[in-house]
Amino acid sequence: MMTSRTRGILIDITELKRAETALAGSEEKYRRLIENSHDIVYTISSDGIMTFVSPSWTDLLGHPVDQVIGKHFRCFVHPDDVEKCNEFLQLVLETGARQSGVEYRVRHADGSWLWHETKAVPLEDEAGKVIGFEGNAADITKRKAAEEALREAEERLDLSVRGTGTGLWDWMVQTGEVVFSEKWAEIVGCTLEELAPVSIDTWRRLCHPDGLRLAEELLEKHFAGETEGYECETRLKHKNGEWIWVLDRGKVFEWTDDRKPVRMVGTHMDITRRKVAEEALLRANEELKGYAHTVSHDLKAPLTAADLAAELLSIVLEGERSEGLAGNVGDAMRVIKKGIRRSLELIIDLLALAEAERAPEMDDRVDVSGVVRSILREKEVLLDDHGVRVSVDDDLGFAGMDQTHAYQLFENLIGNSIKYNDSENPEIRISSPGEAGPGTLHYLVSDNGSGIPESLLDTLFTPFVKGEQGGTGIGLSIVDKVVRLYGGEVRAYNDGGACFEFTLPTYSS
User: Fold this and answer.
1) Distance between CA atoms of 248 and 159, rounded to whole angstroms?
2) What are residue 243's DSSP bridge partners?
3) Which residues of the chain fall short of a pLDDT of 70?
4) What pLDDT was estimated at residue 68?
5) What is the DSSP code string of 218-250?
6) What are phi and psi of 396, to 5 degrees?
7) Are 50 and 69 in contact (CB under 8 A)?
8) Is beta strand 40-45 parallel, antiparallel or unpaired with respect to 50-53?
């Protein structure tokens, strides 16, 4: 009888079972993470076929998972974004590292397009061969909508700012870096390229020295927390060399922990027209004061004298004590005539001053030589009485201005040269030294007298400023107003006599 035997080997697999249990637990955790992730987890083969997608695909995009697996990813990606996705996957392959940041549109089951952002790494088999990609995609539709809304709001703001002639600036205070808007550059007549390199020094270079000092003082106060914002009226140099007025406003929006300014944002608004209007208003107020003085003094005096003379004449005519007063009748009549003549002269000049400010409806083609000849013919007797010799250039050109304004301008200058020339052999010269620039005529009216008193040079064109020889003090104000009305400039100086140099626009049809 044979006895059977059984032999075996007992192997301790405790650690293996523990590892299997741990692996199963890890796989369960991984499964739960994938199933509960709001992002889409996916794998794609190297030829672009979807090999796995998490259930969140259905939650976010509405497609059942079984309708996604086995299809090429481009079936779900917007046609305009397919190339971008291909380039992204190629980058993952080339680097062999995790890549992120590509944004693309994915088709929802209802036909709409949602924005996603993905991250991916190469997917390898057990032998280390790359067989595809794995990654996750997040829905960024709301973020993209917010970005688009912000972009549209910025565009609307930019359009609004442009409509007000306002330029924007964004200054990183610690580094000096500044971003200027195109409109800011337009204000100073440049492009951003012409201003490059752009920094806070760009603004300092263009700013008028007086305004720069004031601006930096106000900035220091704002940086010290003494003011809620910064505001300063200053001048910037335009590309054409002129100074333009700007209203500079700003506020620090970012500070360091120890309250040092980091970022400041603000605007520049061109206020040149406003400043010109303010200066014109100041001049008008000064003229109004002068007018009030004239009415109360220059006009009152001759009228008072005429009134007294008329009273005397009335007494004589009514027969009261007429015998003793009869000899004064002639004197009374002369006083009345003189008072009336003086008052009429002042009123005529005031009306001429008002007319000089009237903008013409259209510019005429004015033959300046013809205007001057006409004035000299009118003053022929006066010129002879004073023994004045006049020389005029043959061709004074054609100005684009109102005929009446041209007459007022030259009549006052020629009249002054006759009246105030105290030379023993008085001469007047009317010349055109040549064009002051394209489209601009240049004139000089001068005499050989003792010149303009130094005390009057700074106020010569102010209404009612008069020299020792009297007059209404309005004539040169008319000259100044007419020249400025047509965009010209006028200046008075002494050079062997009184000189008046000014510019007028050339006529252009």
Assistant:
1) 19
2) 237
3) 1-36, 150, 153-165, 284-363, 434-436, 463-473, 509
4) 92
5) HHHHHHTTSSSSEEEEEEEE-TTS-EEEEEEEE
6) -100, 5
7) yes
8) antiparallel
User: CA angle at residue 196 from 191 to 200, to 5 degrees?
Assistant: 105
pLDDT digits (tens, 9 = 90+) for 53-97: 888 899 889 999 999 999 999 999 999 999 999 999 888 888 888
Beta pairing partners, 52 = 43
Q: How far apart are the first and last CA of the chain?
A: 142
Q: What is the pLDDT of residue 454?
A: 87
Residues contacting 231, CB < 8 A, separation 6+ = 218, 247, 248, 249, 250
Q: Report the candidate in 351, 413, 349 with the shortest Cα–Cα distance to residue 379.
A: 413
Does pTM top 0.85 for this prediction?
A: no
Domain residue ranges in the chain: 28-139, 162-270, 272-356, 362-509
pLDDT in tens, 191-229: 888 888 888 998 999 999 989 999 999 999 999 999 999
Burial 417-450 (b: 16+ CB within 10 A, else e): bbebbeeeebbbbbebeeebeeeebbbebbbbbe
The CATH-assigned architecture of domain 272-356 is Orthogonal Bundle (1.10)
Q: Which two tokens stand for residue 114?
A: 């949602």
Count of helix runs (H) and strand runs (E) in the chain: 16, 17
Q: Which of 490, 508, 324 is nearest to 412 (CA)?
A: 490
Q: Determine the Cα–Cα distance for residues 453 and 210; give it in Å rounded to an integer.
A: 31
pLDDT for position 44: 93
Q: Bridge-partner residues for 359, per DSSP?
A: none
Q: Which fold has domain 362-509?
A: Heat Shock Protein 90 (3.30.565)
**Which among 353, 338, 342, 340 is positioned nearest to 290, based on CA atoms?**
353
Question: What pLDDT sits at residue 457?
Answer: 82
Could you tell me which of 102, 113, 101, 108 has the C-alpha nearest to residue 145?
113
Q: How far apart are CA 123 and CA 93, in angstroms?
A: 10
* Residue pointed to by tokens 């008008």: 284
Residue 433: phi, psi to the nearest 5?
-65, -10
Please indicate whether the domains covering 28-139 and 162-270 agree at the CATH topology level: yes
Structure token digits, residue 428:
């007047």
Select 162-270's CATH number: 3.40.50.2300, 3.30.450.20, 1.10.3720.10, 3.90.1150.10: 3.30.450.20
User: Which CATH code, of 3.30.450.20, 3.30.230.70, 3.40.1440.60, 3.40.50.720, is assigned to 28-139?
Assistant: 3.30.450.20
Tokens of 327: 């000899």
The Cα 57–Cα 500 span in angstroms is 87
pLDDT reported for residue 160: 55
Residue 467 DSSP one-character state = B
What pLDDT score does 226 carry? 93
Report how far residue 374's alpha carbon sits from residue 41's, in angstroms, rounded to the nearest whole number: 96
